[in-house]
Amino acid sequence: MEPAISVEHLQVIRGGRTVVADVSFTVPSGTLVGLLGPSGCGKTTLMRSLVGTQVVAGGLVELFGQPAGSPNLRSQVGYVTQAPSVYSDLTVSENLRYFATVLGVQRSAVDRVIDEVGLGEHTDTVVGRLSGGEQARVSLATALLGSPRLLVLDEPTVGLDPLLRRDLWALFAGLAGTGTTLMVSSHVMDEAERCQRLLLMRDGRILADDSPESLLARTGSTDFDTAFISLVADPST
Fold first, then answer.
1. Which residues 6+ apart lie within 8 Å of 145 measured at CB?
2. Where on the phi/psi map is residue 159: left (φ > 0), alpha (ψ -120 to 50), or beta?
3. Among residues 45, 97, 184, 190, which one has the fewest Cβ atoms lying within 10 Å of its Cβ?
């Protein structure tokens, strides 16, 4: 089966500095991948490369066998940025009805995604009056409207309380179970255990590409913070 994501020797240079350096990996369809690493390590740049909004200096990036950014992929890829990408002067439902029209999906999808992200009590609230975490959930809801084959989520749980983080990760796992591929970035290492596969990133490079269980086993660690530190100290681990 053709992989959902195929990256070969990707290099990105910004401001004369190499931000992503010779990164290669593939992701099968229906996989929940965690892209973890400290702030500034290149996670967002890598994600922008996947969705075709980043100029790359070299390498190959394909989604479902097509070059990243191809017009045919627009309805198949959902992307949620760190900053909420919705209209602050519209209500939650108005935002979602607008994006549903843009995407050409049925209005029934609006109710579905509102329920999925737990925004039922804020349906008629103007987005600008919501908390940062609630606004992030509105952005996530817009990405879910078209039932994309691939979801690229940049720090989607930042600023959320533990219960909501748990619920969103359960949603992510459920989506992966139905065949959706997800790449979820985070700088919070304890979210690693919620993923099927981990890409640990530092200074523009992938330090590890493994399952959570295998990563702990091969570093002899009991937690992911310690595993990450071990890999930084000895990348050959």
1. 96, 99, 100, 103, 105, 109, 110, 113
2. left
3. 190
Q: Where is pLDDT greater, at 217 or 159?
A: 217
pLDDT of residue 74: 86
In degrees and rounded to multiples of 5, residue 202 shows phi and psi of -155, 135
Total residues found in the chain within this entry: 237
Q: Are 60 and 8 in contact (CB under 8 A)?
A: yes
Distance from the Cα of residue 179 to its chain's centroid: 15
Tell me the pTM: 0.90
Rounding to the nearest 10 degrees, give the CA dihedral for residues 82, 95, 71, 34: 30
3-class secondary-structure state, position 201? strand
Output the pLDDT for position 157: 84
Residues 46 and 27: their CA atoms lie apart, in Å, by 14
pLDDT for the residue 114: 95
- Tell me if 44 sits within 8 A of 185, measured CB to CB: yes
Record the tokens describing residue 6, joined without a space.
């195929």
Tokens for 30? 């229906």
Give the list of residues 6+ apart from residue 164 with CB closer than 8 angstroms, or none: 118, 133, 137, 157
Confidence of residue 36 (pLDDT cuts 50, 70, 90): very high
